[in-house]
Amino acid sequence: MAIIEDDRRIRDGLGTLINGTSGYGCNLSFRSMEDALAHTWSEVPDVALVDIGLPGMSGIDGLSRLREKYPGVALLMLTVYEDDERIFEALCAGANGYLLKKTAPNKLLECLGEVLRGGAPMSPEVARRVLGLFREIRPPERVEYDLTPHELRLLRLLVEGHNYQSAAAELGVSFSTINFHMQNIYRKLQVHSKSEAVAKALRQRLVK
Predict the structure, then answer these.
(1) Half-sphere exposure at residue 128, Cβ-oriented, CA atoms within 13 angstroms
(2) For the segment 5-56, what is each residue's pLDDT rounded down to a tens digit?
(3) Alpha-carbon distance 120 to 11, whole Å?
(4) Is the model's pLDDT at 142 over the cut of 80?
(5) What is the pLDDT of residue 137?
């Protein structure tokens, strides 16, 4: 397994717990998303425990990049944050589960086993909030953001899981053109990252 956590005490504690449990092992440990992405994972783990509040790039913003480099790794958020916005953004960005750091060690190990079996473990508090989010979904009022047809096509590709490079290939344009359109999309949607743009597109059903 891999751990991406900036707090050394928590990072070492998780490593000790995992390495001390039969059938589990932690072979990768990073203090930032940048370190994790820059490092070549010679032995790709089954699961990566990812904090959200990292220095530099957040855990949520790094999910799609990790998914691109290591598509077979289950990405399990382990964080102190339990607000609707971060939960929604993490799940939209591709998290396989969402646990709070106050999760008891034995329960954390159970959740690791669950995600290895293809499940999507969530802390009870998080699961309640996710259910609440779904209950609040209503047929959306039409919100106009003046997105052009090309911007909507690009946004649809991002919702489908494309990154900037694959979206450029799909649309037959350059990376710089994609970057130009993304800056316009961010400005019009009043967001600051790809995950926020995707989350807003899904919430308000801007693409079909």
Answers:
(1) 5
(2) 999 999 999 999 999 999 999 999 999 999 999 998 888 999 999 999 999 9
(3) 22
(4) no
(5) 58
Sign of CA dihedral 135, 141, 142, 144: negative
Residues 155 and 127 in one domain: no
CB-neighbour burial class of residue 204 (10 A; exposed 0-12, middle 13-18, buried 19+): middle
**Rg of the chain (C-alpha set):** 18
Range of the domain at 154: 149-203
Cα dihedral value 168, 194, 38, 54, nearest 10: 180
CA dist., res. 26 & res. 63, Å (int): 19
Say what the pTM is.
0.65
Distance (Å, rounded) from C-alpha 156 to C-alpha 148?
Answer: 12
Q: Are residues 44 and 128 in the same domain?
A: yes
The amino acid present at 88, given as its one-letter code, is: F
